[in-house]
Amino acid sequence: MLKLIHLEWKKYHITKYIRNAGILIFILILFNFAMAFWGIANDPETGIPDIAFDTMGISTNIEFCTNTAFLIFSSAMHAVFIISAYKDKTMELMFSYPIHRKKILVSKMLAVWIFSFIALMTAKLFCYSTIGFGFQFYHYSAFPIDMDLTAPLFYLGLTLKSAAVICISFIALFFGIIMKSSKAAIISSFLLVILMQGNIGSVSFRDNLMMPVILTIVSLIFALICILRAAKNDI
Fold first, then answer.
1. How far apart are the first and last CA of the chain?
2. Where are the beta strands (DSSP E) in the chain?
3. CB 160 within 8 A of CB 117
4. pLDDT digits (tens, 9 = 90+) for 96-146
5. CA 199 – CA 209 distance, rounded (Å)
6. DSSP characters for 165-211?
7. 135-191 pLDDT per residue, tens
8. How do the domains of the chain map onto residue ranges?
9. CA dihedral angle for residue 171, residue 205, residue 155, residue 39, rounded to 10 degrees
């Protein structure tokens, strides 16, 4: 399996995605740093951040920005690694190899998942570390500094939330495969972001801890359906 994953990265020139992820991480770091210390989110008259939700801490802003960026990023990778392979018939050629179809598709899904998870974790760690470092010099942030970089539970939570977000991209992959459209996968990722930040009446999905859990379970079910379809259906 590891060899297949490595072949997928080589085939799709993973260095290109490393470069793109690096640029995206740099933008996220700069944006969050500017939000915290340079006042770009502040109302010119009140000096209070326009986008602050009640007493929103800096971690809420970092989580929203990084999760949104890499949910869309991973969905775009699924579109290239998997959906495009169905569209241009290269998947049909791969399924003719003496390797089980399930193993081929799982290796593609894992190639995207592993890379996106590492990229998202890197983005969050750099964003949090930069904010923590900056606070030593600015001593003031537009948002409350609500993270403890020395707490083991902080890193455990970071890992679990990052894994859940990348898993949710399997929902976008499912719709992309069903509709045989890369655009459908990317549009689905935007809709998932809206859903995760939306409200129904007075209930906010953004603050609901059950929402990412439910979406993660649904995404794993959809991933399983994609794998089973590949094993049983003709391309």
1. 22
2. 199-200, 203-204
3. no
4. 667 787 888 899 999 999 999 999 999 999 999 999 888 888 767 777 778
5. 14
6. HHHHHHHHHHHHHHHT-HHHHHHHHHHHHHHHH-EETTEESTT-THH
7. 888 767 777 778 888 889 999 999 999 999 999 999 999 999 888 888 999 999 998
8. 2-232
9. 110
